[in-house]
Amino acid sequence: MAAATPDAPGAAPVPGSPAWWADRPEPRGAPRRGRPALDTDHIIATALRLVDEHGAQAFSLRMLADALGSGTATLYRHFASKDEILAHLVDRVLGEVDLSDLDALATWQEVLAAMAHRFYGALRRHPNAVPPLMAQVPVGPNGLAQRERVLHALLDRGVPVGLAARAFTAIGHYVIGFTAQQHGPTVASPDAAPQLASFYRRLDPTAYPAITRAAATLTSVPLIEEFRFGLDLLITGLERHAPRTPAPAGP
Amino acid sequence: MAAATPDAPGAAPVPGSPAWWADRPEPRGAPRRGRPALDTDHIIATALRLVDEHGAQAFSLRMLADALGSGTATLYRHFASKDEILAHLVDRVLGEVDLSDLDALATWQEVLAAMAHRFYGALRRHPNAVPPLMAQVPVGPNGLAQRERVLHALLDRGVPVGLAARAFTAIGHYVIGFTAQQHGPTVASPDAAPQLASFYRRLDPTAYPAITRAAATLTSVPLIEEFRFGLDLLITGLERHAPRTPAPAGP
DNA sequence: ACCTGAACACCGTTCAAGT
DNA sequence: ACCTGAACACCGTTCAAGT
């Protein structure tokens, strides 16, 4: 029957899910048992490097153990499963997003644009980490810290609390969807965009008149411009719900 | 070096990529060799049923072969790899989206909203198929047919061709991102939304004041409303670029 | 000529045997 | 007490041997 209903009462929480992260009391550092031979951070950093280099599909625990000069069994002294390692890896990517200077921005529009662009940048630096990242709401320690910072900055600039949360969610979903489709591992060549455009242009115009017409018009739009277009739609849409005036900047 | 750069010149195209679909001349039917014992459509339909029931991770070729009363080697007479099967499976899900009555809608806004809701509905019916779906731009026969229909309906209602293509892309990315985060297999319990909300609410208010405040306010917003909110942002944002007037309905 | 059992080289995970 | 080699039950894929 229902096979893929994780976090069912009684069952062990799925790694990366809210319930799973909630069971992990130590947000940072603090090895779990004694003093292990391998540093937890080092394992995750190595795993991320391997995923970057070889792709999430080719990444295996044997490969990771080899890179660490260790055996696969040793990894299980630090993590309960491969999925746990991937959950930490995803949170590590989110940790690369630097939102420390959000206070310097005058308007909530700028805050949302900065958040979107920097989140987008981190995902572009780790396209092979996108599939594991998409599979979960990012509620690890770094994901929570980013969410807190952005919501705080929005509230500070007079955005109503309900709107702030919805804006964060909507823009987050857009960034994830955009990156998945345009920079996922299946399309992760540097020239993915022109490739896709020329694919559309070469279709039979009789069978696909509208697609080929659009492709002929939209010849070589840089991806970053396409990204900005959708982002602007969301932000201008939000302006109908929220004040346009920037809050007085606190000292 | 560059490990995950598919569709490189000379290399075989990655299943599901534009280049791969372009090599598949027969959009529908027509078995490839003689008269095979297994129907291609039947294989894909069975594969989708198994993915629905057991999840994409548990789905294996042995499981598929068993369900078909056959052996794994037989599957390779119809498809070159598991990825090929998944690419067809994804296109089959897109084939469930019914856009045949788009002509009855008066405005381009309604066209985009209908497309988003029906695409969203198909993904919700197959949450376990979302991970393979996200990994690729959907350019299989069914994906192309949907794209053509929507673009045609938008052009018919006076939307400029460049804007139509960008609107389709932006809304498609939003739907994909929303579904991945809210209905992916990791969070695919029926009560995922309240679960996530209560997770936020139980966080330490000292460490995460903005998150807990937002969670307390946004108690139990139905997911469909959250979906509509982001969609409305995009559509109202688009209205600044396009005419508001519906085109005269053709007979 | 078409099909497929059985093998191949892997995989994540476990555990008994080592130190 | 801690670590880990070697095994376990799988996996996607191949191919020689069957009909």
Question: What attributes characterize this protein structure?
Answer:
homodimer, mainly alpha, 12 helices, flat, disordered N terminus, DNA-binding, Homeodomain-like_sf (chains A, B), transcription (chains A, B), DNA-binding transcription factor activity (chains A, B)
Description:
The structure is a homodimer of 251-residue chains. Chain A has 251 residues and is an all-alpha fold. Among the domains of chain A are: 18-94, Homeodomain-like (Arc Repressor Mutant, subunit A, Orthogonal Bundle), CATH 1.10.10; 192-220, no CATH class. Helices cover 57% and strands 0% of the residues of chain A. The first copy, chain A, has twelve helices and no strands. Chain A has helices spanning 18-22, 40-54, 61-67, 72-75, 82-95, 108-125, 130-134, 141-156, 161-183, 192-201, 209-217, 223-239. Chain A is flat and about 55 Å long. Chains A and B meet through α1, α8, α9, α10 and α11 of A and α1, α8, α9, α10 and α11 of B. Chains A, B: It comes from Streptomyces inusitatus. Chains A, B: One of its GO terms (biological process) is response to antibiotic. Chains A, B: This is TetR family transcriptional regulator.
